[in-house]
Amino acid sequence: MFTTLIQDPPAAATPQGPDYATGIATETDKWGQLTKLASTFDDVDGLFYFTYVVCIFFFVLITGALLYSVVRYRRKTYDQPAASNVTHNTPLEVIWTVIPLLIVMVMFAWGFKGSLDMTYVPSDARQYKATASQWNWLFHYPNDPAKSRNELWVEIGKPAEFLLESTDVLHAFFLPSQRVKRDIVPGRYQSVWFTPTELGEFHLFCAEYCGLDHSKMYAKMHVVTAEEYADRPWDTFDDSTPEAAIKSGESIYQSACYSCHSVDGSKLTGPSWKGLFEKSGDQIVGAKREVIAGGATQTVTVDFDYIKESIHDPEAKKAVGYENANMTPFKDLNDRQIKAVIAYMKTLAQ
To answer: How far apart are CA 176 and CA 51, in angstroms?
Structure first.
């Protein structure tokens, strides 16, 4: 039930995005059918394989009976009479009604038990919040102002509950390794929980088609020890030096912006960041850009205010040629983070 929705992660080793294919747990179980179980929800696997075996058994049984009948009772001559005129067999009809009913009831009871396990959240669960938007994940940590995009850290053996929300369209929170999936409906909170049991990095997908770059809406979940979790590995922002600010700005680009904005001049959903700033002697200055504001075309100079407005309110001034592009507002980015992004943009100056 979980295998058909798994997407391939974004292509690795491109200058416009992080390498998602390296070091992520992708092992399958001993049957090679499901991603290796890394949570306590083992009823999902048990029910999946029970249903799988039942389907195979009855497929072989019914197909074998059909083939036998086709060969054994085939008409050998044109005028050969029918082998039997019996129109029904009550005991046989009762058997093929009762046996499937019993099997379906077993599936229902098994599935209901697993559903109850997923419904009742342990009292000691750590509460997170996951905000989905086109095409990013934003994770909030309990009692911590720091947030992370497209990378999530949880502690092994510690139940984790997620409050899910969407800022735009329908999404889905899907962790195959944890055996959890929950649709995220705009304007409505959903929740899901699990207890991670394996250390490592695992895939987190959006499993509902949410627009053009749906396949790029991917995140990594890191399951770490209590000691590593206490170090708050999600808080990686550093602007203490110009070099650190550039690195932090690049990290923000890779986690939130790379799917829509290139850095090499190529055209994606949104305008490229290359050329936003230019070299003028020993200085790096903002370039001129044609934008649509209030239905009229105007020329603006790229600076902090323009970049901030474009991040917080993308509809205010749209670059000419990208009037129909839709961008999610990133209002959670503060001034320090925006300045770090600009520091990275300036490294692309020609």
So the answer is: 18
Q: Are 10 and 216 in contact (CB under 8 A)?
A: yes
- pLDDT tens for residues 267-291? 888 888 888 888 888 888 888 888 8
Report whether the peptide linkage leading into residue 273 is cis, meaning its omega lies within 30 degrees of zero. no
pTM comes to 0.66
Query: Does residue 21 have a pLDDT over 50?
Result: no
3-state secondary structure the chain: CCHHHCCCCCCCCCCCCCCCCCCCCCCECCCCCCECCCECCCHHHHHHHHHHHHHHHHHHHHHHHHHHHHHHCCCCCCCCCCCCCCCCCHHHHHHHHHHHHHHHHHHHHHHHHHHHHHHCCCCCCEEEEEEEECCEEEEEECCEEEEEECEEEEECCCCEEEEEEECCCCEEEEEHHHCEEEEECCCCCEEEEECECCCEEEEEEECCCCCCCHHHCEEEEEEECHHHHHCCCCCCCCCCCHHHHHHHHHHHHHHHHCCCCCCCCCCCCCCCCCCCEEEECCEEEECEEEEEECCEEEEEECCHHHHHHHHHCCCCCEECCCCCCCCCCCCCCCHHHHHHHHHHHHCCCC
CA dist list (Å): 206 to 28, 169, 279, 298? 20, 12, 40, 38
- The four Cα atoms 249, 254, 257, 263 give a dihedral, to 10 degrees, of 80
Distances (CA, A) of 52 to 27, 42, 47, 84, 175: 20, 15, 8, 35, 21
**For 132-177, how does the pLDDT look when each residue is reduced to its tens digit (9 = 90+)?**
988 889 899 988 888 888 889 999 999 999 999 998 899 999 999 9
Summarised one tens digit per residue, pLDDT across range 194-213 is: 999 999 999 999 988 988 88
Report the sign of the C-alpha dihedral through residues 8, 13, 14, 16, in that order. positive
pLDDT at 1: 39
Average pLDDT over residues 294-321: 87
Contact 306, 312 (CB under 8 A): no
